[in-house]
Amino acid sequence: MPHNCCVKYCKNNTQKGYRLFRIPSSAERHQTWLQLLNQPQLHKEARICECHFSEDQFESKRLDGKKLLKPFAIPDLLSSIDVENTRKSVENDVPMSSTYSEITEMQTAQSTERSENDMSLESTQETSNSSINNSIEKDALGNESNEDELNDQLETLLENSEDVLNSLKQTIKSLSRKCRRYEKKLQHRENTILESIFNEDQLQFLETDKRKGTKWSDDTITKGLKLYLACGTEGYTELLRQKLPYPSIRTLQHRIRNLKFIPDGTSVRE
């Protein structure tokens, strides 16, 4: 489900690719953001998109390249938006001959419908940043809302950590899939090489490593006999000691009962 920006007239949401940030939970910063938003209250899940923050409100030079807010960041691009919307509304509703006090009263009446802000919008635009910076400095020095500010910092760090964690999880999944593909390729290549050298019964022996009870094929018996004649008893015995998949000497003799081997020669006789 996409999250939408809570700023009036803003249509940005996460589905469009915008990054959204939660309203702070600390009382003082929460009220500051509400003041900038010109809203009396907001849902606890309300969020503001990245377009309402200037570049100096974001952390810079992050190794992961993510765009994350600083712990004490504020949406400092809201005041100018509210002033412009209010000016347009006043120009449409108030005659040119109206006095400044009448315009101010109408601005206050319109603003009261949307928030409890009793200051003029132009004054808010000029003084909000300095007053907010002063309150942040007081919090950093350890005023009564310091605990709430720390909670806000922890929430921000937690969100950032969750983003990093999700990114790492995706990386792990991608690497795991690659590893499985490589393992399959290696296994296939290994099987292809082994199949070009050994018969099926020899491959089964390699899997079980149990010579006793193995049913050797005629082709494997023939290969074993050739090695026996070429290597002699000691040489063939060493091959078996190295776990190569060939029948034992007794098995070879059993399969050719009527033949007598001459280990050091090149022929057999009855």
Automatic annotation (TrEMBL):
Compartments where located: Nucleus, Nucleoplasm
GO cellular component: nucleoplasm
Region of interest (Disordered), ranges: 97-133
GO MF annotation list: DNA binding; zinc ion binding
Biased composition (Polar residues): 97-112
Primary location class: nucleus
Entry-linked InterPro entries: THAP1/10 (IPR026516), THAP_Znf (IPR006612), THAP_Znf_sf (IPR038441)
Keyword list, A-Z: Cell cycle, Coiled coil, DNA-binding, Metal-binding, Nucleus, Transcription, Transcription regulation, Zinc, Zinc-finger
Family to which this protein belongs: Belongs to the THAP1 family.
Protein name: THAP-type domain-containing protein
